[in-house]
Amino acid sequence: MPRGGLARGRLSALAIPYGWLALFFLAPLALVAKISLSKSIIAQPPYEPAFRASDGLAGWLEKARMFSVAAYRGLGEDPLYLESYLSSLAIAGVSTLLALLVAYPLALAIARSDPKRRSLLIALAVAPFWTSFLIRVYAWIAILKDEGFLNHALMALGLIDAPLTIYATNVAVVIGIVYSYLPFVVLPIYNSLEKQDAALREAAADLGAGPLATFWKVTLPLSAPGVIAGALLMFIPAVGEFVIPDLLGGSDTIMIGRTMWNDFFENRDWPAASAGAIVLLILLVGPIVWFERRQTKGQGAQ
Amino acid sequence: MLQTPILQFEQVSKRFGATAAVDGVSIDIAPGEFFALLGPSGCGKTTLMRMAAGFERPDEGRVLIDGADATDTPPHRRPVNMMFQSYALFPHMSVADNIAFGLKAAGSSRDAIAARVSEMVRLAQLQGLEKRKPHQLSGGQKQRTALARALARGTKLLLLDEPLGALDRKLREETQFELMDIQKRLGAAFVVVTHDQDEAMSMADRIAVMRAGKIEQIGAPADIYERPRSRYVAEFIGEVNLFEGKATRRGDVLRIEAQDGEIEAPSREGLVDGATLACAVRPERIRFAAADASGANRLAGVVHDVAYRGDHRVFRVRLKSGALARVAAPSALPAPQPGEAATLAFDADACVVLDA
């Protein structure tokens, strides 16, 4: 077989994933970008310009001149968007930190358990995925509301006299996000801990480091790639989270996902919502690129 | 032993499930001694070393370090350092940080650490590599970093788990001499675990040959080589010819009726007349004799093949019984060719009598 055949074979193999990405990621993204440059009108579709095949090339070029960055300028003028971005970043950031605090000990305990039992424990950590996400978030309403399980339990134990207001607050949103995304944080951390050579810990102990010093100087730094991967896997989707703040948050819970939803469906201002999505994407691409570069740089060290 | 041993195993045993990894072992190791634990894989030598480091707790018996009971002392509180077989270098730290790790854990001052690290870098010939990460080092450089790290704290007892196992042959020999040199200079006791008898023989002051969790024999290399106490030791250390047969005592001479001829060996206490015994003879103790020579310790055969080894040659000679005997003779001496008849001869005192 000549080399040309091989190259063609490899090319067609690559064409599938790239074609998939182009069709289902790049094309919708281009549509959103296009709408973000359009102008909101009361019509169907609710923006202009709208390109039609009947316009012909000249008509398209004519319409393309109508593109403007007005929607982006609008974002800057609307304090709600700025507040939404900041509040989303804050809620996602706090949730991610809390999730790391819960996930790390969990991942460590699983990684240090009997090898025969590890896959069972990992399966248990992922078990919530077997139930619908929506049902699990609804279940948190039953737990957190004023007359919910949590308040009943705390009052029965005599820890509180009056029910705590958790449901319909940002606290409930954070609890919901931490709960929902926890497995995404546990798995990469577990993976990096499980790969660690136990001899490294023995070497640290042999050189006089106690268990705590060994953790800070050896175990934790070596698991940093897992911690960062888990944090990004959670933080990025959590920033744009819509369902959890919508179900568990209150009227004063402002998150960018909800703000965009309102613009799309309540205000029918598609360009504004699209511009909001593009800005969010740019905000989130930064950390991903940073992590990718770190990963490739660290590759040699593993 | 006049001095307090730096390391003592007192009747230690360790079981893993149904198998006894270490079974009632007692060893005393003197300060400054170069000691080798030698045996095939699974003989318990690594478990024994891990008990000294504190990574395994003996089920029975005690481990004493410098006279103090350390059986229940956790690894990070033991005045012992270990060089790991895999080296276990911290991948996220430079060579210098790896070496400094134990000093930082001990809370030494910054200046003291820097001075000690550069001293170790010189000792292990790692100059110029201080800032490299382990993955940027060659096998030999990793080995020397691991050694420098284990030596940095200056403990009087160093444990080395297969220290040369991952090196290629040429480097291994050089490193053997380096290790011996460093050990002499520092005066610390080195305990080396190895499955390589050459390594143990050339480096150690004393060797403990282990088998199935027990000590078969402890002694100086020459002792173990010349006077193995069991067939297992004789066969594990170097090449050996074994001639078996019914033994009869005649004063201080023992006669063994082997299939290939009558063997005369020095007798010793405790040998039972009429028992079946084996005579072990090293290849270099056998020589070629004139064809008409007769008497004991004369075995006739035909040269099967010859391996040239530079300064000497190894002959394999087919004996009457069909067994192949090995003879090592200096290359300079005249010797029969393959296919020619040969008569093998050896002195009675070349023969070590062992239970068959």
Helices and strands, with pairings:
The complex is a heterodimer of chains A (302) and B (356).
Chain A: H1 3-36, E1 39-40, E2 47-48, H2 56-64, H3 70-77, H4 79-111, H5 115-126, H6 133-144, H7 149-156, H8 170-195, H9 198-206, H10 211-222, H11 224-239, H12 243-248, H13 256-266, H14 270-298
Antiparallel strand pairs in A: 1-2
Chain B: E1 7-16, E2 19-29, E3 34-38, H1 45-53, E4 60-65, E5 68-69, E6 81-83, H2 95-105, H3 110-123, H4 139-152, E7 157-161, H5 169-186, E8 189-194, H6 197-203, E9 206-211, E10 214-219, H7 221-226, H8 231-236, E11 241-250, E12 253-258, E13 261-266, E14 276-281, E15 287-289, E16 298-308, E17 312-319, E18 324-330, E19 341-345, E20 352-355
Parallel strand pairs in B: 3-8, 3-9, 6-7, 7-8
Antiparallel strand pairs in B: 1-2, 1-4, 4-5, 9-10, 11-12, 11-14, 12-13, 14-20, 15-19, 16-17, 16-19, 17-18
Helix pairs in contact in B: 2-3, 2-4, 3-4
Notes on the structure:
The complex is a heterodimer of chains A (302) and B (356). Chain A is mostly helical and 302 residues long. In chain A, 75% of the residues lie in helices and 1% in strands. Chain A has one domain: Orthogonal Bundle (MetI-like fold), CATH 1.10.3720. In chain A, strands 1-2 form a two-stranded antiparallel ribbon. In chain A, a hairpin with a 6-residue loop joins strand 1 and strand 2 (47-48). Chain A is globular. The two termini of chain A are 37 Å apart. Chain B is of the alpha+beta class and 356 residues long. Chain B has two domains: 7-234, Rossmann fold (3-Layer(aba) Sandwich); 239-355, Nucleic acid-binding proteins (OB fold (Dihydrolipoamide Acetyltransferase, E2P)), CATH 2.40.50.140. Helix content of chain B is 24%, strand content 35%. Chain B has eight helices and 20 strands. Chain B has a six-stranded mixed β-sheet with strand order 6-7-8-3-9-10, with helices on both faces. In chain B, strands 13-12-11-14-20 form a five-stranded antiparallel β-sheet, with no helix packed on it. In chain B, strands 15-19-16-17-18 form a five-stranded antiparallel β-sheet, with no helix packed on it. In chain B, helix 2 crosses helix 3. Chain B starts with 6 loop residues before the first strand and ends with a strand. Chain A binds chain B through residues 197, 199-200, 202-211, 213-214, 217-218, 221-222, 300-302, and chain B through 53-55, 74-77, 80-82, 84, 86, 88-92, 101-102, 105-106, 133, 135-136, 149-150, 153.
